[in-house]
Amino acid sequence: MPMTRLLGMAVIAALAVGGCGSGGALGAAALAQRSKSLRSEAAEGALLAEHAASGRTTRIYTREHASDLAMAASRAEVTLKAATTEPGLEPTLRQLALLAGRVSADLERLGDASMDEDRALARELRAAAQASQEIGERLT
Asked: How far apart are the first and last CA of the chain?
């Protein structure tokens, strides 16, 4: 587990540094990439929640993995809230930042959720992954 956490933190750091190189200004391509990353985190969280709800994963694994995913979504939220973009893309930027915040909050809840909550979180995270995909498709 420590190696997984270290790898996750390295990926997050690389994404954060990559986002800072342009001074925080994100174009359509960068927003599409952020939506793809967020979709991935939400979809992985949904799968984790489904496995937790069905007893196919341990609570410790669920807690640790959900924490790693929540951290990535939280960093995405912070990065998106601090970013700028051209006026026509500002609503999309705000939408992605809000979605990242929801995904992060859902993933944080997943770590200590009951099996019923796991099912609800799986639905919410699947919906977030779908919303993120739709945002990305509008950008490309």
From this structure: 37
Amino acid at 34: R
Residues 110, 119 contacting (CB under 8 angstroms): no
Sorted by sequence, the CB contacts under 8 Å of residue 70 that are 6+ apart come out as 104, 107, 108, 110, 111
* 123 has a pLDDT exceeding 70: yes
Say if CB 41 and CB 103 are below 8 A apart: yes
* C-alpha closest to that of 62 among 77, 40, 76, 46: 46
Q: What angle do CA 49, 125, 54 make, to 5 degrees?
A: 20
DSSP state of 113: -
pTM: 0.83
CA distances from 116 to 1, 10, 33, 112, 122 (A): 26, 33, 33, 12, 10
Bridge partners (DSSP) of residue 25 are 84
**Position 68 pLDDT exceeds 50:** yes
Between CA 117 and CA 106 the distance in angstroms is: 10
Contact assessment for residue 95 and residue 35, using Cβ atoms and an 8 Å cutoff: no
